[in-house]
Amino acid sequence: MARRKHCYSGIGGQAVLEGVMMKNKDKYAVAVRRPDGGITVDVESYQGILAGSRIKELPFIRGVFNFVDSLILGTRCLNYSASFCEEEEEPGSAGGEKLMTVLVTCISIVLAVGIFIVLPYYLSSLLNGWLRNQSLVTIIEGVVRILIFILYVCGISIMKDIRRLYRYHGAEHKCINCIERGRPLTVDNAMRSSRLHKRCGTSFIFFVFLVSIVLFFFIKVENPAARVGLRILLMPVVAGISYEIIRLAGRSDNILVRLVSAPGMAVQRMTTKEPDKEMVETAIAAVEAVFDWKKYLADHFGYEADEDRNQEDREEIPADARS
């Protein structure tokens, strides 16, 4: 079997406090580096809202549910990892934890709407007295939205915990890239893999911004409140389209897909940082709890993981992809 350069694995994840969450289908694992240096791995199942419904499989609609599920699961995993950072964890009921997850998710959505939809619209509307071209104002609104996001990412990176979170984010990507490039999942192989990945949530957010510019361009309503309302109502549509784009990006490597993915990959340079070997080891623990990468390599790349691949056909990773 001819060796492939890249193959979609289906696994995804996110960085958490001092660890990584990896998800494969309905199963996910959170691996956290404990203060004593050990690694705790918690494996659970999450089917998401409307589990089993065919609605969640429909193109463009599935992206909305996937986005909401990602918010809920991401908050749950962050709460779990945060418990290892507390000096004394207070016991809480499962119902209380679920309620807190829902509340945090709702608050996050409201804040995101305010910061990334209402605020850019308000700032760009200040130009209405100088610019008569409403289409140009809409484009400026989109640019302002992107600038706010970039400033937000740069601003929170000042925090020590966020900088470590970005490094675990890099470890997550390195493990997935290592597998999808056909390498055995070892610490050394993962460390030499790229920390950037086309299916990253950062790229998804950037696609949301780009798609919103196009859709909002066609909103021709005079009433300011109606404009804001339509922007909010269109967000599920924007999320659905953006999901299909990033889903395609994760399964294709042609030149057009690379060009479309380039802006999001560039922003990932800010939201991912180079991890150390212990961080990668933690990410590997999360992967192996939910994904049989040895079987995957045998099925998709045609060789057994026991083979020594470190010296065979090494794929050079550009320096700019590592830093």
Question: If you had to describe this structure to a student in words, what would you say it looks like?
Answer:
With 323 residues, this protein is an alpha+beta fold. It is 59% helix and 8% strand. It has a four-stranded antiparallel beta sheet. A hairpin with a 5-residue loop joins strand 3 and strand 4 (39-45). Helix 1 (62-82) packs across helix 8 and helix 3 (134-156) runs antiparallel to helix 6 (201-216). The protein is globular and about 65 Å long. The model is unreliable at 87-93 and 307-323 (pLDDT under 50).
SS strand fraction: 5-15%
What structural category characterises the helix and strand content? alpha+beta
| Shape estimate | globular
| Uncertain regions spanning at least 5 consecutive residues | 87-93, 307-323
N-to-C span = 33 Å
Q: What's the story with the biggest beta sheet?
A: 4 strands, antiparallel
DSSP E strands, number: 4
Helix amount: 55-70%
Strand order of the largest sheet: 1-2-3-4
> In DSSP terms, counting alpha (H) and pi (I) runs of 4 or more, how many helices?
12
Q: Estimate the mean pLDDT confidence.
A: 85
As a whole number of angstroms, the C-alpha radius of gyration is 21 Å
The helix/strand series, from N terminus to C terminus, equals EEEEHHHHHHHHHHHH
